[in-house]
Amino acid sequence: MIYDSTTQMSRLGQCGRRISRGWSKPAYLLALLVLFTSAALAQLTTADILGTVTDATGAVVPNATIVLTNTGTNEKRTTTSNGSGDYSFNILPVGHYSVSITATGFQAQIVRDLAVEAGDRARNDVHLLTGSASTVVEVTHRQGCAGPAPQRP
Fold first, then answer.
1. Residues 17 and 83 in one domain
2. For 150, phi and psi rounded to 5 degrees?
3. Has residue 21 been placed in a domain?
4. Which residue, of 21, 55, 123, 139, has the fewest CB within 10 Å?
5. Is 152 helix (H, G, I), strand (E, B) or coil?
6. Is the separation of the CB atoms in 65 and 78 below 8 Å?
7. pLDDT per residue of the chain (153 residues) written in tens, 0 to 9
8. Neighbour tally for 44: CB within 10 Å
9. What is the C-alpha separation between 54 and 90, in angstroms, rounded?
């Protein structure tokens, strides 16, 4: 038997075209689904709280202990300020938080009701007063405030 290569190629080509025509629409829809799913996953659902701990003169306070508490779940996270007095809590669930700051030689300070929404990078700078750690300064935050609320006497 003599095989003609052009005849065989045309048969394979026709079969291939039938398969590709049958799967082209579902493959196109699948590609769109994957494209839009990845865009939806890129949406932010978490927030960050960050700040700087300073004393009354504006000097940074390194090694201050900062405890963040989610007031809805009572979940606590703890960190210490770095050499520049900076601290941060990343990838936090949306909600309301209180922040407690303590450092040796300074009065403890508590910031209550710090609300964060998805995508927020809430800044909570803290100015510690010198004194006994047994004295606590309480600050209440309101949603939408750019900085700390005035301190209560």
1. no
2. -60, 145
3. yes
4. 21
5. coil
6. yes
7. 555 555 555 555 555 555 555 667 777 777 777 766 655 555 678 999 999 999 999 999 999 999 999 999 999 999 999 999 999 999 999 999 999 999 999 999 999 999 999 999 999 999 999 987 566 666 665 554 444 444 444
8. 10
9. 21
Closest CA to 81 of 64, 96, 106, 59: 64
Phi, psi (degrees; rounded to nearest 5) at 99: -125, 125
Question: Residue 64 is encoded by which pair of tokens?
Answer: 């201050």
Domain membership of residue 112 (yes or no) is: yes
pTM for the whole structure? 0.63
Domain that residue 70 falls in: 46-140
Query: What are the residues facing 51 on neighbouring strands?
Result: 87
- Type of residue found at 142: R
> Same domain for 101 and 69?
yes
